[in-house]
Amino acid sequence: MNAWTQRLQKLLPGGRWLVIVPPYVWMLLFFAAPFAIVLKISFAKSQIAIPPYTDLLQITDNLLQIVLNLDNYLYLVRDSLYFKTYVSSLKIAAISTLLCLLLGYPMAYAIARADASVRNVLIMLVVLPSWTSFLIRVYAWIGILKNNGLLNNFLMWLGVIDQPLHILHTDVAVYIGIVYTYLPFMVLPLYANLVKHDQRLIEAAFDLGAKPWQAFLKITVPLSKAGIIAGSMLVMIPVVGEFVIPELLGAPDTLMIGRVLWQEFFSNRDWPVASAVAIVMLILLIVPITMFHHYQAKEMEGRLT
Amino acid sequence: MTTPHPAPAAAGTKQPTPSDATFLTISAIRKEFDGFVAVDDVDLTIRRGEIFALLGGSGCGKSTLLRMLAGFEKPTAGKILLDGVDIVSIPPFKRQLNMMFQSYALFPHLNVFENIAFGLRREGRPKAEIDSRVAEMLALVQMQKFAKRKPHQLSGGQQQRVALARSLAKGPKILLLDEPMGALDKKLRSQMQLELVNIIERMDVTCVMVTHDQEEAMTMANRIAVMEAGRIRQIGPPDEIYEQPNCRFTASFIGSVNMIEGRITEDEKDFVVIQSPQLPHGIYLGHGISGFEGQEVGFALRPEKMEISKAEPEGQYNKAQGIVEDIAYFGSHSVYHVRLPSGLKLMANHLNARRWASEAFTWNDTVWLSWGENSGVVLTS
User: Fold this and answer.
1) Interface probe with A: pick from B63, B93, B111, B154, most Cβ of A within 10 Å
2) Which residues pair with B53 in a beta bridge?
3) Topology of B256-379 in CATH?
4) Of A132, A187, B45, B238, which residue has the fewest beta carbons closer than 10 angstroms?
5) Do the Cβ atoms of B176 and B216 come closer than 8 Å?
6) Is B128 helix (H, G, I), strand (E, B) or coil?
7) Above 0.85 for ipTM, yes or no?
8) Do residue B92 and residue A206 have CB atoms under 8 angstroms apart?
9) What structural domains and CATH numbers belong to chain A?
10) For the segment A82-100, what is each residue's pLDDT rounded down to a tens digit?
């Protein structure tokens, strides 16, 4: 091969490009472009028209102006409802994440320590419910939790209670729904981390005088930090924007951003404010998302060394 | 070793006490895994201050035995007495034994200092004491400069030093070494073997090591137990194990050996003659043995005890003629594989004392092998 064909080959797109380009095009079309549109709408003014917002570019007296309307963002600050909603969403997300962690860690640990032959079956059982539609599963919880539902009937039949417990349409029902739905997202990354742990490290800790709980806290937990963070982020990030679960199981006053967004968009038809709500939510989530990526990168690094 | 009267128990003195010879006593220890017998009624006594090696191939039960000492496996039956106390029912985190793991098992999230301090922190010792003890340990293994490094930033040899420091930090009664040189390359291995022995002797700690490498066991240990299929075949100092093996297994496991099967034809008080169909000239031993005429025996002869020559040696016995089939060159010496007319292959070492001496014998040469009358060992089992 001579130098000319080699140079020519460098200029031509290789097989590498064929693999890299499609996902980037996909992301550009279905993530970056819609995001840009939402960002644009958030700086517009609401108007009764089709589309129901003003254009950012205006030509008046042969002058092209970009008019950025900050009113929507100021509105979010002025009306305390939005602040409360963000706080409430983050709180619900944080508590659910903690509950998922408390439930998911022992599960993941038990599966990782189980006999290799049963491990896959146990992981299957964790994943199996997601083979049914998410919506159907949340609806099923209505049937379980409502006043004359399965749970109350069962407890009354046992004689534990004589009045049905009011669970449906409370925050408790929202937590039950969220933890139930997102538990696999906690268990899987934790399991993937814990199953790789070298059992000899625990033996070494015992050998050096650590009691089992000390070995767990000083060795197992720190070594599974990447898994804890990955699982927590996988639960926390989507829960902040969760709409279906609070809508179906929550009380009318269960404040979550997803619901406010829905109301602004479909009930008030105020697209600019709805867009501003979405943008602020995204900014709030960027912090945990970057953290997640940082630790995921670290985890990958650790795997390579 | 044992004194007739118990010496007064004085703390800190190095007077031999009756318990010194039986510091660690393993009696009738047995371990079964689902019906498979890994360790089969082993009895052992280990003296205070010695380095004791459990030597055997993989699956011989040596690692299981070590793990029972550490407390990671519970014996099916038997006792382990450490300084007179049965430790079988004591959990590993309360035993005064520390182990240096194969491939070290250093905690990857802790730096060198914290790895060494781990055991001391579990005892809840004051910070100043921990700091000075860790510094002492770092100095012992010459790793002071690396205290802040994480294990993955260290070379294999450095990791081993940290692992050793960590297992010695608590001043254990017994140090357990699991394949201590297994993760090192050959050059580093021979250097670390001697260094490890020096450190262990300086710390005056009793040491039980497990290895499959007979060279490592011979270099490091005061006494060796050769294990096979869950049982101990022979216990003794390295030279005794090598020169006086008590069975065919030990003879062939330690070093290389020529094994000749034969029958005792003359059994006198001060000499024995063994005839083998594989050797046209018989074997003559210059001392009596506890055998009888007609007994089937094995005759083990180390390659370095053989002479190789072009001319026929004098005498009626202890010689064989054959053809050089292979030459393995080791630099310092060469091993000649000589095939006899009977088909038996014998190995003979020849020291390469002169730089071009290997030209003396070459492939397909007809040579004579001979050996002295006290060179070999007669084995009955």
Assistant:
1) B93
2) B209, B224
3) OB fold (Dihydrolipoamide Acetyltransferase, E2P) (2.40.50)
4) A132
5) no
6) helix
7) no
8) yes
9) 71-304 (1.10.3720.10)
10) 999 999 999 999 999 999 9
